[in-house]
Sequence to fold (108 residues):
Amino acid sequence: MSALWESHEKSVRHRHESSGQERPCGTPYRSVAGGRLRPWQVRDRLFTPRGRHGVDAAEVRAFLDRVADDLAACYAEVAATHERADRIRDALREWQSEQARRALASIR
Fold:
């Protein structure tokens, strides 16, 4: 195992110990069918070393594809939430305007 790899593992282990969070340190990413990636899974992802300085390109590509898919799903959800909030905001403004008109009509 290279010195750089060992240094990375120690760094990850130190971050976990200092944060007080209990989670597997430097374990391979295991996806639950349909489950979302968690930030700690991305941060702590380790790839299998290949040769002196590399990692398995196919493994990295598969992981990056999964990250991209989850991010796309997150962005789609954020967009849908913004649209929903806009509809609710518009409905609230319409209701408030109607209430104000009724209040003014009852004063006259």
Q: What stands out?
A: The radius of gyration is 25 Å. The chain is about 70% helix and 5% strand. The longest helix spans residues 57-107.
